[in-house]
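Re: How this chain folds, sequence and tokenised backbone to follow
Notation: Tokens come from a learned vocabulary of local backbone shapes, not from coordinates.
Start of record: The labelled sequence and token lines come straight after this line.
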Amino acid sequence: MDPVSLIIAVPLVLVMLYLMVRLPLAIMGNLRTGYQFRQRLAASLEQLRLARMLGYLGIDRSAYLHEQPAVDIQKHMQRCADCDAKPTCDQVLDQGGPAEVEPLGFCNNIEDLKTLRPPRSSG
């Protein structure tokens, strides 16, 4: 191997070795950060009526947090926090009963949440 090739090959090998070590570490760091972000989002969700509304509509909270974009979840949470119909929401959620959507017209998130509901069984 001539000296010029060696001068070019050594830095390339060193860069490749660096990337082979650094890339998995960066991926693991990003996964850990994402997990912590979702955990904080879940904790914030539990502080709002939105968490109860998800249960009322039969939407699994874990699936909601996992499948929905964080931007949409934060938008739903902000709408819930800013809602003026909290007493009405509490009344409806405290009644339990069938999860009908019609009486939920007061909810700022109902249009989005309707699309997330699991299909109802006809049996």
About this structure: The helical segments are 3-46, 49-56, 61-67, 70-81, 86-95, 110-116. The mean pLDDT is 89. Residues 31 and 72 are 20 Å apart (CA to CA). Residues 3-46 form the longest helix (44 residues).
